[in-house]
Amino acid sequence: MNMESNLTVEEVIRSRRTIKEFKKDPISLDTLKELLDIAIWAPNHKMREPWRFIAFLDEGKQHLVEVLKNEKEKGKFPRPMKPERLEQLLSIPAFVVLSCKQIHDQ
Hints:
38% of the residues lie in helices and 11% in strands.
């Protein structure tokens, strides 16, 4: 994958966009694994690699949306989430959740 570019950091940041509509094409497991393999190379503090990635596809994605709906009904979101937004989540080919361990420096 050749990603050589002449863009400056400022150009990259200023041209960034939030994607709100996705193709309905499924993402292959090989592609997802490749993307996550690239992601783990991101710089990190003292090479501790504090991140964990969780990928949700197919039934896992549907289960996650159901959990979000239940939490919404319990009023657990700080901002209201529209029901159609939750349904729109199902059109996304895959969810990747990133979590990080909290590390305290000594």
